[in-house]
Here is the input.
Amino acid sequence: QVQLVESGGGLVQAGGSLRLSCAASGRTFINYAMGWFRQAPGKERDFVAAIGWSGSSTYYADSVKGRFTISRDNANNTVYLQMNSLRPEDTAVYYCVADRVVAVTVSGYDYWGQGTQVTVSS
Here is the structure.
């Protein structure tokens, strides 16, 4: 089992920045690919970003490319999502995910955090 706890969500004005953190525990963190998904009210859960175990491979949804950066600190079992130039359409609950290999689909991840709310006001 892998336990994931997100933090760092909140309310920010359009154009602002937030950094989400996800602390992992329960298994060897370095063995897992990590990622972020988000779900806006009334919409499906969508892929945002993912990172391989070493941190050298990263993947982004087109909607966040150039604005969001995923990174990981294997020494501290933490993955981050730096979100810049935020837009109202980025408003959603953001979920941290983990699994053995990188994936861009919901079904590709067995482990999910409880989510953290990000609200971007216009």
